Fold these 4 entries.
Entry 1:
Amino acid sequence: MSTFDALFFHFFQYYKSKKSKKTNSIATFYLTLLQSSLLLLLGVFFAGFFKQMHVQTMSSVKAWTLFGLVVIFLYFKNWIQYSGKKRKVLNAKVLKNRKLHYNIWLLWLLPVVILGLTYVLYQAT
């Protein structure tokens, strides 16, 4: 089980008692937000690196379009992966092995910190 699976199931377990009908949507949204913010951080890093190396790879419009398409792909991948039988099997494994102990506020703060770091890196380039 990957780190993203563990984070998904932590959100799933936390919100299951509070918002039972929207639990899967909230967990999928969080996972997509986290993955897309990490992808944005990587993209800004490599854009700055290529700019320093004077390598012209693609225009910024094409890069933002590619980022948008990848985010849409990530959302649908997560939606398909965590809405079916695989989610039930992995959820049973998580519940059987251990209870996850993460602070939910720190997990919600993680994408915000990553986006802040991305902004700082973007300003540095």
Note: Helices lie at 3-16, 23-52, 60-81, 85-97, 104-124.
Entry 2:
Amino acid sequence: MQEDIEIYVLSCPTEKIITWLESTFTLIDKSSPSPLCTKATIAVDNNEIEVTILEQAAGKRFTSIWFDSDKTPWEDDIACAKQAFEALNCEVRCNFQGWEEEGNQDPDQWWRINSHEEGPFIWN
């Protein structure tokens, strides 16, 4: 189980992301600390999870969705990315292996899901 889950969605409006969260989980709270940042609290199996949605997180077109909990319903970033792609129908990217402090992974190695393909690629 990962400590947290983070995915990046391409050209996907925050409101569409919130709608996905509302239809998948119980939305407890939502706020917008800044024009590009939305924070939400969702409930999953009696656990509250903080979610941060940050627009323009990677270039102008990618929005980060960060689930700050090890209690998410997904085993890893890729499982979350697959569900997000199904729900949002926009390209989703995530770290290929999950983040590890002592890992020797390539920091540019990512996983991409879009309507044309799914698989590892180098994002730089």
Note: The chain has a mean pLDDT of 92.
Entry 3:
Amino acid sequence: MKKEAEKVLSFPRKQAEEIQALQDTIYVVGGKWRLPIINSICNGNKRFRDIQRSIPGITTRMLSRELKEMELNKLINRTVYADTPVTVEYTSTDYCYSFGPIILAMIDWGKKHRKKITGKD
């Protein structure tokens, strides 16, 4: 793992280009709520209330705002069904799924980090 990191982080690199790419990534998936929302939708929660219930502490207003932003960034699709009452469902796009391996790596790292800082490794 260390050798792989050293290979990726070796010199010379285009730092300005890398910083721009990192900032773009953080802009799209950063913040307290976006990754939990993606995780919730990828775990089968499609309706607004189901997503909200699966994420402790998120407000209706914040979830609504984040879903709109994520739709603009092509991470999710919003589908409105003209039933009575109207039904709205959110699904991940293929583009969102391309971020999957990174999310899984972050989950793995987070678990290891928690063990490390609690002394349970």
Note: The chain has one domain: 15-118.
Entry 4:
Amino acid sequence: MSAPHSKRVCQIIKLKPEAEAEYRNIHASVWPGVLAALERAHIVDYSIHYYRPIQLLIATMKYTGTDYEADMKKVAEDPETQKWWAVTDGMQESFVEGAQGSGKEVPWWTELEEVFRFEGKP
């Protein structure tokens, strides 16, 4: 069940086909500092799915803080996360025109609009 003030986020990006094995491998052991930065930014229930026919990565997460933009800025300023992105960004192709990489002014991942949600009975 979602916290009353949580925000769900869904994002997509293209994975370069030749990077699939490396991307899977690095995500099998995400760096502890990267996970700590996400935790400090109130990100929970984060997962990334892969749809191979069109090389689509689909990330979903819940944000439980009160200032999403400020917390995402803190993640982008985290040195360990910046090193992580220096590795993973090269494996991806952004759908966002003008995107230069994660944590920059123009978003690297494309955030999707939620059009339906079913949470079941409380």
Note: The chain has one domain: 7-111.
